[in-house]
Amino acid sequence: MTETASDGGSTNLDGMSTERAAELVNDDERDLGERRETLAIVARDGTVRRAAVDDALANASKVVTTAETRVELAAEKLDGARETASPVADLDLVSTRLGDFDARLDAVEDRSDALGEAVQEVLAMRAEGDLYEVARRIRRLTTAATEVQRAADDLQFELGSFEEWLTDPDRRAAELDGDVDAVAESIEELDELSEALGGDGSGPESEAGRTWAAARVRHRVASLLIADLRAELAALRRWAEREGAPAPSGIEPQIDEVQGRHGAVGDRLASQADPEWVARFGDRLTALDEALAAMEPPVAWGEVEAVVAEHRPEAE
């Protein structure tokens, strides 16, 4: 990424209009408008100026500082949540959530650290570096810092909700009830799909075969969801007993109903299986079953998504 070559050297953009400079810049990945917007970062009154770099870098540094502060606040928020959770941190239901938050904080801290390194790289270029490259890096730095800030803010918000969940048994029960409803809705959609699907023997290349295989995948994942719901309900009951509080009521019958509908959909999908569909997709579906069978509640859904992506029949 350099300024346009001219007589063996590079074109000096300093003092050139942003319009003309954008036309000369060698950046095939961005159109003229994007190049013009990038150069405007190091321009004054429509003219590219090296003297404008310091102001542009100062503005970007403010965005970086704000992002770094938000990351620090997120770390403090996690410390507070961990302290709140300490009496029940032995429950998998709680420790798994804390582990997820730890991993997210580690990731956003790594991204925050990279911002400081990027600032130093631009500082080293500001006096003599390629002006377009300087502007491009400042723009990329500002965008990255904004994304880090957003991620840190989201983490803080979710940690706040987590602390409320930790201290309010009614909220825990309500959230589980909402999760049951969401799984029920998903199985209803799967039920409608299976009713519309006909095992008509139309062959391995048919759209019906691919739809059937995808439905089998969704059905298998739904069984994990149901197991996760039951495990969470059991954990909430132990938690309530420990605190001497009423256990969640009315949720188990809902899960039982969802389980029954899930089983009926599974039976229908099994009866609809065309032998050629089974021949085409069976190995992948079996591999998926085996991989998911090794996962136990509380389920790490990021791992489930990775396993499904690896074994999804449509990807063959």
UniProtKB/TrEMBL annotation:
Protein name: Halo transducer protein
Domain of life, source organism: Archaea
Residue ranges of the region described as Disordered: 1-28
Organism: Halorubrum distributum JCM 9100
Matching SUPFAM superfamilies: Tropomyosin
Compositionally biased intervals (Polar residues): 1-15
